[in-house]
């Protein structure tokens, strides 16, 4: 058995398996129809209406041993007529579109248009300075003071007065204003002798140290 589509008609052909000779065929113009009918109590059996081409026809039973084969037979016919329906709908839509007059939206020769965009504003004078100020940046100095240098900000200065160094005369003299200075000794070794005399006496009175 073969299913062959020619235009909008599907042909079910029954041929000899060995020789390929045509035994019978059924021309199906719509599905489901009286040409192909499924039996009530099984999905594997159908009744088809065959013709010999001379106007004679007969109804024969068609059965499939495998349920998968009967499913493929049914789906093949459904897909074909689904395609036929889509083609008919497209042709109908094209006919409707052709009947409606088309609008010519193209530009004529020499025709121009003008577009106003409301969100765009003209640039004002000082616009860049205003935008820089809005961004937190200082504007540049005026043209007349281009070479001027701004003074640095005044720093906080603290003056600390250091205490005066102690006066030597104050330490040496508590009553008089002038310090008392001892006269210079004529003996170069006198100071050492006088300084060591007391310690020498203490050493003689104490332990057995000998003064040199």
From TrEMBL:
InterPro entries: NECAP_PHear (IPR012466), PH-like_dom_sf (IPR011993). GO terms for cellular component: clathrin-coated vesicle membrane. GO terms for biological process: endocytosis. It is found in: Cytoplasmic vesicle, Clathrin-coated vesicle membrane. Residues 194-212 have a biased composition (Polar residues). Residues 126-137, 144-162 have a biased composition (Low complexity). Its main location: membrane. Residues 120-212 are annotated as: Disordered. It holds the Pfam family DUF1681. Residues 1-118 form the NECAP PHear domain. Belongs to the NECAP family. Involved in endocytosis. This is Adaptin ear-binding coat-associated protein 2 isoform X1. It comes from Danio rerio.
């Amino acid at each position: 058995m073969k299913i062959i589509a020619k235009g909008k008609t599907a042909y079910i052909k029954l041929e000899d398996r060995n020789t390929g000779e045509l035994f019978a065929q059924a021309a199906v113009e719509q599905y489901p129809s009286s040409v192909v009918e499924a039996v009530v109590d099984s999905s594997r059996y159908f009744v088809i209406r065959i013709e010999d081409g001379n106007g004679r026809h007969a109804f024969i039973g068609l059965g499939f041993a495998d349920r998968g084969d009967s499913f493929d037979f049914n789906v093949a016919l459904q897909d074909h007529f689904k395609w036929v329906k889509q083609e008919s709908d497209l042709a109908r839509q094209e006919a409707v579109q052709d009947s409606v007059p088309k609008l010519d939206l193209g530009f004529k020769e020499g025709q121009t248009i003008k577009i106003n965009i409301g969100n765009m504003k003209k640039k004002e004078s000082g616009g860049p300075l205003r935008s820089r100020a809005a961004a937190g940046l200082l504007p540049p100095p005026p043209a007349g003071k281009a070479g001027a240098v701004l003074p640095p900000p005044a720093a906080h200065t603290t003056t600390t007065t250091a205490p005066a160094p102690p006066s030597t005369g104050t330490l040496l003299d508590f009553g008089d204003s002038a310090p008392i200075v001892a006269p210079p000794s004529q003996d170069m070794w006198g100071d050492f002798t006088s300084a060591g005399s007391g310690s020498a006496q203490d050493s003689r009175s104490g332990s057995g140290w000998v003064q040199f």
